[in-house]
Amino acid sequence: MLNRRMAPPARRSGIPLLLLLPLLLVAGAALAELVVFRTVLPASDYPAVAYDDAVLKYAPNQAGVYRVRNEIAAPFRINAQGWNSGHDRYAADKPARTLRVAAIGDSFVTALQVPCDRSFAEQLEALPGKTPVQAYRFGMRGAPLSQYLWMLEREALAYRPDAVVFALVHNDFNESYEPVGAYSRAFMKLTVGTHSVVGEIPPVAYTPGRDELLARSATMRFLMIRWQLMPSELFNGGGIRAALGGLGAGLGAGLGARSGPGSAQAALPAVDANVDLDFVQSRPPVLGATIDYLLGRLAGLARSKGFRALVVMDGAREAIYAGRDSRALALNRQVGAAAARHGVGFIDLHPLFAEDWRHNHQRFDFQYDAGWNEHGHHIVAQAIRAFLDR
Questions:
Q1: 343-368 burial by CB neighbour count: b if 16+ within 10 A, else e?
Q2: What is the pLDDT along the chain (390 residues), one digit of tens a residue?
Q3: Phi, psi angle pair for 258, to nearest 5°
Q4: Which of 190, 242, 312, 340 is the most exposed place for a label (fewest CB within 10 A)?
Q5: Could you please report the per-residue DSSP string of 314-370?
Q6: How would you write 10-54 as a 3-class SS string?
Q7: What predicted TM-score, i.e. pTM, was given to this entire model?
Q8: Closest CA to 142 of 178, 193, 101
Q9: CA–CA distance from 314 to each of 5, 108, 351 (Å)?
Q10: What is 91-206+245-388's CATH topology?
């Protein structure tokens, strides 16, 4: 038998595979950043913030499209004063025989989820009533009730409103004294004792942080805002929910007949109306003192500056859809009682949403975003119009 020697393998030329893979990954990431998430699957735009004259707002004269999944694609427009609005700019002079309304709140007033001319403020302007309305919005994501008061004093009063509307949600109260959120130190907060409010803490100038750096990337805006993945979830495989725009709609709300303490109430969800109610209600005396103090301050400003004060409070929407009660509604009742004590107008949106749901069976929010949709904003606008016409 012949003894044949095996020929050595031919030497391969070119870039080694271990070096080629990183290059391909970099090229793919660059393609996604520059093409895919800007044209093919466009990322959500999100307005940059600015700290102007001790008020955190948005940088003026921005425009874009806020996107969540394939459900929301709403154009926004930040005006010359730094607020998302149907008005290009806010004028100091008021039109004759027109009622000027200042709407103040958090992301529910910013209302990126609907086109900039379809929030409750702009819909309020279009509704018929005794007197024409001009509505200016002052909404900032993450702001608590304490900051609404600051925004009123430092910004909205300059436009001499005839009526001021605070749009309240269920995390507005404890976040007035708890350090919550990326912007927390840039909002006016309260110092509290065991049972009372001790004083006010002015905001600190905001400097851009991680969120602003990440928002420069179309890839990150696609993942974090449009697809609702937080940075930690990108690496640990967590579920899809929280994003820069707020909590997803699946975290709940509340409806139904009022139920007292007992097994039925205890069995209701602790995470409801888009908040962790155990956290929100963890210090009942301080919570009550905060509500009373801030609504008292609002009432005092209304008397001294000559405007009508109105508080509009969100309902527990997920519970309305499910046909159940909600622990969150205790906050609605608490706010209503404090508003009555101080002579502040109060609209509880929960029964209005519940009644509309019984007749129309149409949601007030989105599947993937808890902000009001156009129908929800319309219910709010109608309620405010009815209050103004009294």
A1: ebbbbbbbebbbebbeeeeebbbbeb
A2: 445 555 555 555 556 777 788 888 888 889 999 999 999 999 999 999 999 999 999 999 999 999 999 999 999 999 999 999 999 999 999 999 999 999 999 999 999 999 999 999 999 999 999 999 999 999 999 999 999 999 999 999 999 999 999 999 999 999 999 999 889 999 999 999 999 999 999 999 998 887 788 889 999 999 999 998 865 544 443 333 333 333 333 323 332 333 333 445 558 999 999 999 999 999 999 999 999 999 999 999 999 999 999 999 999 999 999 999 999 999 999 999 999 999 999 999 999 999 999 999 999 999 999 999 999 999 999 999 999 999
A3: -70, 135
A4: 340
A5: ---HHHHHHT---TTHHHHHHHHHHHHHHT-EEEEHHHHHHHHHHHH---SS-SS--
A6: CCCCCCCHHHHHHHHHHHHHHHHHHHHHHHHCCCCCCCCEEEECC
A7: 0.87
A8: 178
A9: 85, 9, 10
A10: Rossmann fold (3.40.50)
